[in-house]
Design a protein that fits this description.
The protein is built from 3 helices and 2 strands; from the N terminus they run αββαα. It is elongated and about 85 Å long.
């Protein structure tokens, strides 16, 4: 199964590399106010993919932090419910009263 994963990764890499090589011709990307960028199409697509993925991750960070805070709070609440009176160290080492 491990070799199948590596073969699949190699196949995807080969396909993306072939796509980049076939789209290596420079193109002009025109922005507002007369700015333009002359670069290969594959590089432009890669840059905009990375920027989009970064914005997506940044947009989800607020929810991730909120959920982590809620998880910590729920764990504290569960811990206080399960063991409201923690056992003292000297009590834990005593033998039970009904032991032989």
């Amino acid at each position: 199964m491990h070799y199948l994963g590596w073969a699949l990764k190699f196949l995807i890499f080969t396909m993306l590399f072939g796509f980049a090589m076939h789209n290596a011709a420079p193109i002009d990307l025109h922005f507002f106010l007369g700015y333009s960028w002359n670069a290969p199409l594959a590089m432009i697509l890669l840059v905009f993919f990375v920027v989009g993925a970064t914005f997506g991750l940044l947009a989800s960070l607020g929810q991730v932090f909120r959920l982590r805070r809620e998880l910590v709070q729920l764990r504290k609440e569960l811990k206080s419910r399960v063991n409201p009176h923690p056992v003292q160290a000297d009590q834990a080492l005593e033998q039970p009263k009904d032991a032989i």
